[in-house]
Amino acid sequence: MPELPEVELTRRQLRGAMEAARFENVLVRRADLRYPLPRDFAARLEGRTVRALKRRAKYLIVELTSGEILVMHLGMSGSFAVSKAPVGQFDNHDHVVFNMSSGLTVVYNDPRRFGVMRLLDGDLARDPVLGKLGAEPLASTFGAHSLAMALRGRKTTLKAALSDQRIVAGLGNIYVCEALHRARLSPRRRASTLVTRTGAPRPALYVLVKAIRAVLTEALSKKRSGADRFRVYDREGRRCPRRGCGGTIRRIVQNGRSTFYCPVCQR
DNA sequence: AACAAGACCTGCATGC
DNA sequence: TGCATGCAGGTCTTGT
Questions:
Q1: Which residues put CB within 7 Å of chain B, the nucleic strand?
Q2: Closest CA relative to residue A144, chosen from A192, A203, A59
Q3: CA distance A126 to A107
Q4: What pTM did the predictor assign?
């Protein structure tokens, strides 16, 4: 489930249990996540205190007062539950349990086990993965000019470019579809067509930047659930929600993933 | 270097 | 009912 808004909401959920608290006991019930947890994973956390709980793109960044950093990614199916200690009953897919000095227990559940937990010594900028992440779409550094530089010369589609975490960090399949619909841009359009030959943003790129911010901000604030949560995602065959459009949402496959869009109003 | 396709793993909805 | 198929919101690796 997790794209940037869901990860940010997870961060806020975990903060009360983890921030300024110590890992009293860590239980690894299954170590074979996307990458196997090292055998000393629990021992390296126990006794450590959380200085701050941050987020970068879809990664949760747990800074410890020791200087080490616990980096976590939810993959496709990861989630956390917070409850009062002690937890006696576990689900099959409860893989990692943090008993914190706050008196709260944090349980990581992940049926598909695409999630990641890694303990890093230092500096995220030098990390082979985190160091290559592109702009945070809700940060002030993100804008039409920086996005223009990133899209310049890209022959790939807008859908693929916006899904690329090195270009914009935090969008996934849903919010790429939603942002493109809001910006009235076709997911099949070539990414470089939003940039002039000299590398300046075309007007449509300003619209896209606003649309990206809007869909993420809205997802963070509303958090309504149910069928009408998205305007195009998973709505194949339904009417386009844009006033006066009258188009029908289509599903196509791009780079092996579903794309939903309105062929009438998205050009 | 840029890009597309395949792989990883489990659960669920669908159709026969 | 059982079984097969296809699909799922991510990203790493492989191949052109």
A1: A 77, 92-93, 111-114, 153-157, 160-161, 191, 255-256
A2: A203
A3: 29
A4: 0.96
The gap between A233 CA and C2 C1' (Å) is 33
The integer distance in angstroms from the CA atom of A155 to the C1' atom of B3 is 9
**CA distance linking residue A100 with residue A82, whole number of Å:** 10
Q: Which DSSP symbol is given to A133?
A: -
Interatomic distance A69 CA / C6 C1' (Å): 39
Q: How many CB atoms lie within 10 A of CB A260?
A: 23
Instruction: Give nucleotides in strand B with any atom < 7 A to a protein C-beta.
Output: 2-11
State the pLDDT confidence band at A229, using cuts at 50, 70 and 90: confident
Q: What is the average per-residue pLDDT within A2-10?
A: 97
Q: How far is C-alpha A20 from the geometric centre of its chain's CA atoms?
A: 24
In sequence order, what are the residues at sequence separation of 6 or more whose Cβ sits closer than 8 angstroms to the Cβ of residue A193? A202
Is the CB of residue A174 inside 7 Å of nucleic acid strand C? Answer: yes
**CA A82 to centroid of chain Cα atoms:** 20
The first and second tokens of residue A23, run together, are 């890992």
Render pLDDT for A151-186 as a digit per residue (tens, 0 to 9): 999 999 999 999 999 999 999 999 999 999 999 999
